[in-house]
Amino acid sequence: MVFDAIDRAILKRLQSDGRISNANLAEAVGLSPSACSRRLDILEKSGVIRGYHARLSDKALGYRMTAIVHISLSGQFAKTLTEFEKAVQRCPNVLSCYLMSGEYDYVLRVVVKDLEDYERLHRDWLSALPHVVRINSSFALRDVIDRPNTGLDINLA
Fold this sequence. Notes:
By secondary structure, this protein is of the alpha+beta class. The chain has 5 helices and 4 strands. It has a 4-stranded antiparallel sheet.
């Protein structure tokens, strides 16, 4: 997809204010509301805009610890990966999961309330995931950067 200056302006504005009304967005980027709505529809249908949501505070919800979990599987066969991925999607504490190259097969970002909660997660979920042979966990001491979006300049052409 090729982005023009208006598309870039729409995307930049939405990254800073995802709750902006279509009328205000249209005015900010110099379009009529109907033209802006059509542009948004194209950006959404093409997958550039993946959704709109509120960012909740893990800490405010009682999840005071973030762990980065490295997972090794028994192999990287298609069936093995598929079974692991289906199972890990059911774990509510897993906020993100990446298939990796390198030493580990997957990296997960999980949130827990405390160490006792992590022990429960490890016992009941992580070690019970199919084909897991090794789990290595590190705990975040504090957030340094936690961007809700790309944080990159939108100079896409």
